[in-house]
Each structure stands twice: as structure tokens, then as C-alpha cells.
Amino acid sequence: MKKRWIALLTCAAMLFAFAAFGCNNETGQTSTPPADNSGTPASEPSGGDDITVQGVTDTTILVGNTAATTGSFASVGVPFNAGLEAALKAYNDAGGFEGRTIELVHYDDGSDAAQGMTYTQTLVEDDQVFALVGHFGTNTVAATLDYVKSVGIPTVYCVTGISALYQEGASGKDACVMSVQPIYDAEGRVLLARAVASAEDNIGLGGTKIGVIATTDDAGAGILAGINRQMEEIDVEVVIQEVDPAAVDYTAAASVLKNAGCDVVIGAMNQVPFENMMNAMRDVAYDAKVITSYVSASAAALGKMVDSGAITAQRPVYTTAWLDVTTEAGLADYTEFATVMAAWEAANGIDSTDPTATYVLNSYAMAGYVAGATFIHGLNQMGELGLELTWENYIQAMESAPLHVPMGGELSFADGERTGITALALNTVATQINPDTGMYDLLSVSPILALDDVMAAAG
User: Fold this and answer.
1) pLDDT the model gives residue 362
2) How far is CA 359 from CA 53, 77, 405, 414, in A?
3) What is the pTM of this model?
4) Which CATH code for domain 2-182+327-416?
5) Domain segments of the chain: what residues?
């Protein structure tokens, strides 16, 4: 059972790496504003630069997101928003924030950056939402990030890992964006720490000379930036090879690392280039431990590499993961999610016993639930501090106490930290098929650990 769950959750993390995600067109409050892809605001938010609050009445708090609800990303967005709505419903049913319920408005941006900009402006300026929750995908987030910061609206949980989100010590309106899922730069720091940390107690891979193959796209550049940042704190030799993400032959880069004697290789890249990298290591007979991003943590994809001989017992692959139900606490969090999700499904006429209809086992729904729980955390902290509902106070409240990520570790926004989650688990793929499932299992090597704890084992 535990192996099944870790495979499910790491698969979720893999899928979060796509360019843009969607939301559910059939639930929640979906609106269709006039089409305008110009990217120019139709009007300034009410109150102009002095605005500190909107979207709040005596009975409601309005939040919003824009996402692709049609096309290839609907299979991601529909369950994501279902999980988000489930979290908000449970909170509302329990009394909400001082008697106010949270209402969600969302639009279908078709995974188009210009449309995402238009709809984000509509949410802020026309709908006048209090916050953006579950801000979706690389295209829309990248296009709207400067706008969101210029306005200062709280933006909770960006569904992408682009480097532009990574900030150490954000201040002023820059602090309004609060990411949760791993950002490439932050994960690069963790990958190097895990590569070097002692193999004792399975905390790390015990590498003494680290090789890096990094693609020159957003993912590779961001992870490499994090590796370079963490090299300031780790005394280890690192050999770096940068490669074209569109190339299919990485044998030259693999040969350089082999000849240099690197005993651990970091794959700083997304899924397709990673398979090409592993094939190159096979082709040059390079046996070393390999560690890569959670985006490649798919039992099916990694199992294919085992079948091809790219992954072997002498060339094992390890991946990170930011959700983990193999622990008692993680399983308790999952049980709460499943209960909340089932209640939302019952209210929406969905049969939770039908595996083709329920979201109880859906990875994207879990992510949406985390987004909702993150926003609610800020409201709860406002209540603890007795603060009035304003944008500045909400951000202050988010910085006042660490967030426990459901099914994950802790994340702090204190002192302007906007690095995304760095408390990650470590998994590996089995090199033998599980006879009970006919599949290669993703196995838990190390539970979720904070970066500081991994660094303590890195010497």
C-alpha cells in the first residue's frame, strides 16, 4: 500500500511541471468577460495604488484564478480546482473566517499567456477578488507576475516552478507572491545537498565528485542556478555540462563526467531530456548514482528506462518528492483530504465509489487541496493575530508562522522568503518488477527532510 501511494504522489509532482494547467468548468463560479488579449488594463483597481483591500463583505471573501479548462490541460485543471473547492467548502462548512464564506471565481485562459493576462486583470479590476489562489501555469504566471506585483494582490500557490518566482528576502509588493510547490532554483539546492549528504541512514548519496548535466531551458537553468547557489555552502568539486534540451544525443556530456570520475550525476532537466541523458550514460557504459527532479518521478517512465537498460542496479536513479504519505503524519493528512474530497463530491453529485469519477485518488486534486489549505492558513493566522482583512495584513499573517503543507513538510514565508518548498523526500525506482502489480515500484528512500537537516549530513 505504501509503495502504491508514493508512486501516486510523485507522479503528481511530475505532472505539475507542464506549462499551464486548467480548472473545472462545471463547478464553482465561472465567468466569461469580454475577450481582450491586449494585456493592457481596462481600468486601475478601485483605489489605485492606495488599495489595501477588496473582495470582502460582511458575508463573503472573493478569490479567483485563471486557467485552461478546455483542451489538453483540462485533465489537470478540472481535478485541481475540484480539490481547491473541496478545501474551501470544508472551511466554509466549519464557519469560514469570522462568519464569512470564501467564494471562487475562475476563467478559462486556454493556456494562452495573453488571455491569462486579460483574465487576471479582470479578476483584480472587475471582479475585485481579495486574492489569487492557485495561479496557474508557466505561461500565465510568467506573463502576469510583474502586473500582480505592481498591484500587490496576495497571490497564493503558483502552479509552476519558474525561476522568476524565487526570492530570498522579498519586500514591499514583491512579497505578495507566495509559492508553495518546488521552484527550480530551490530544488537545485536540494539536489546538490542530497547528492553530497552521507548515505548513512539513506539521507543522501554520499557523492565525492558531482557531475551535472543541465539543459539550457527554464528548468535546467533554474536547477543549475540553485546548484550554484548551494555550492556556496558545500565544499565539493562539481563538473557541469550544459546541453540543448532539443538534442537527443548527450553522450559527449556523459563522457566528460565519466572521464572526470564523477560518482554522482545530477540531471538538471525535465522528463524527455532526462531519458536521453540516461540513454547516453548507458551507451558510454557510465555507472554512477543519478539524482533528478521530482518532475521525472514517474514509475511508468522510469520503468521504461529499466527495461531499456538505462537504469540498472549499478546506475540507480533517485528523485525528489514533495508529497509523501509513507509516514504516519502524511497518511493522516491524506485521510483528511480524502474525507473532504468525498464530501465535496457528494455535494456535486459525484460518486466517490466510482474510480473513474472520484478525485479521492487524483494527484492534481491533492495539489488543489494544498492550494486551498495554504490560503486558509493565512486567514487562520489573521484570526490568531486579530488583524483586519487587508492585503498587507494577510501577507504579514502568512509570514508570522510556518505553514504545514498537507502530506508534505513545512514552509516558511518569514523574512520575505519566497523560495517554494525545500523540504523534500527522496525516492528510487526498483530495478525488479513487483510481481503483485506487474510494475516497477517507486520506493521511499528518505522521508521529507528540511534542507538544513540534509545539509547537516553533507558535512
Assistant:
1) 87
2) 34, 12, 19, 33
3) 0.84
4) 3.40.50.2300
5) 2-182+327-416, 186-321+426-456
